[in-house]
NAD(P)/FAD-dependent oxidoreductase (Gulosibacter macacae), 468 residues
Amino acid sequence: MTEPASLTVDVLVLGWGKGGKTFAAAMAAAGKRVAIVERSAAMYGGTCINIGCVPTKTLIHDAELRRESDDAATSFAKAVTRRDALIAKLNDVNFHMLADRDTVTVVDGQARFVSPHEVEVTPSAGGRGTNEVLRIRADLVVINTGAEPVRSEIPGADLDGVYDSTTIQHAEPFPKRLAIVGAGAIALEFASMMRGFGSQVTMLVRGDRLLPREDADVAEGVSKLLRDDGISLRFGATVTEIVRSEAALRLTLDTDTGAEHLETDALLFATGRRPATAELGLDAAGIDTDEHGAITVDEQLRTSASGVFAMGDVRGGAQQTPLSLDDHRVVLDAVTGEGLRRVSDRVAVPATTFITPPFASVGITADEAKQRGDVVRTVMVPVAGIKAMPRPKAVGDPRGFIKFVVDARTDLILGARLLHVDAQEVINLIALAMRAKVTATELRDGIWTHPSSTEALNEVLGQLGDPH
Ligand SMILES: Cc1cc2nc3c(=O)[nH]c(=O)nc-3n(C[C@H](O)[C@H](O)[C@H](O)COP(=O)(O)OP(=O)(O)OC[C@H]3O[C@@H](n4cnc5c(N)ncnc54)[C@H](O)[C@@H]3O)c2cc1C
Ligand SMILES: NC(=O)c1ccc[n+]([C@@H]2O[C@H](COP(=O)([O-])OP(=O)(O)OC[C@H]3O[C@@H](n4cnc5c(N)ncnc54)[C@H](O)[C@@H]3O)[C@@H](O)[C@H]2O)c1
């Protein structure tokens, strides 16, 4: 059946992100006619599934399993093959999750507003939806177009061997030496992963330490882990030029002591991801953005255009898949529920940076607590010294630390920083305890499975220092 060139639906979702696809499925299940526009078939399911969380954690897992004696390039190539097979499957599942519903039309193309409730689609080839719908109208529009890597403008940034977080996942040839610009989650995860595969990794950090928003002892603990792993940390270094010199890249670095040069086989730019709004024609819809190009929204994710919502990375703020997912709950509640949910209702949102072992965090730091005048009790202990935590030793990686910040008056957890095996799981329990107002003493006296990483709470929370 040939699709009409224009389509009117109840709900139009732009971009196949976590929040948008879940919202689209919910609205379709409620009997609404839904259209979802995705510009690339390789992105059915969005960033997380195709180029973000899942493929990188697959590669990280394989890097962790590699033995020192395994050939680096072969190990990486095998891991990429496994990654690609998994991602192809997930992409397909995501496509069918929406395309198989009677009331959903999947449109392959790039969407651009022509008015608040109408978009024009520039069709894209190679998809499995329709690329014949050129205009779509809906009373309810959700923008979920995500974010894109910030592109460097320095000379040489477009040379072969210069990667972003997407292209490096298929780096060819495997870089024996890798320089990384940036020190956020992407830089840290790829540094740890590529080191695991056998690269000599140099992180080029423009500041004077890692994790500037963390307590100094936490930042130092993470830095030490990376250094002990053989990753070189260069602080106060900014790349100003890249030139090809025979088979290598020659970087010019601006440092505190003047210009320096560094030879590397490859360079990864991990300097942030910017909301994908430039091509959306937001002016035509009267949709406002901030100075970073993020769509401005209210507490219920309404944009400045009535009936148009934004969710996920495109609206600015922390970029994490579970936040995009929770955004869809807020919008669903606003349009079909009681309208009670607000994004500011969120408390104790956990996050994990998947270095090896993972670094997980929730709540505030000791410095932040002191700045706001709280009297706190803190503890920071190395994992290797926690007697009642055999699991990291059993799996052969007893590195890292655990830090807690507890309110001295109420005994409630204000924040936790975990660097250890299983930290990405344990942090969820601590976040739940914070939301449910479970005290540090109750966590300390909890009955946990054995041997597990959670049971560290029995010992660590028994070592809180005096109030200060
Ligand atoms: C390498 C990497 C690793 C990450 N790891 C993690 C992790 O471990 N844990 C975590 O929580 N978060 C992680 N993130 C962040 C997480 O992936 C994002 O926060 C999340 O995927 C954002 O989802 P979203 O809903 O905003 O939209 P996205 O999933 O980004 O989807 C947006 C979609 O819109 C499409 N699009 C854009 N413009 C248009 C247009 N004009 N017309 C049509 N379609 C358009 C895009 O092609 C894309 O498919 C990672 C990110 C990266 C890059
Ligand atoms: N596990 C996770 O939850 C996970 C994993 C990967 C990415 N993400 C998210 O994806 C987003 C993008 O990640 P990211 O690491 O690229 O961004 P980021 O904003 O977290 O970090 C960017 C880094 O680049 C540096 N930087 C920026 N411009 C620079 C320049 N011109 N020269 C030198 N350094 C520069 C910054 O100082 C910072 O260290 C983040 O929001 C991140 O939280 C999350």
Remarks:
- The pocket of nicotinamide-adenine-dinucleotide (ligand 2) is lined by residues 181-187, 189, 206, 238, 270-273, 319-320, 351-354 (CB under 6 Å).
- The longest strand covers residues 104-115.
- The longest helix spans residues 72-99.
- The chain has a mean pLDDT of 97.
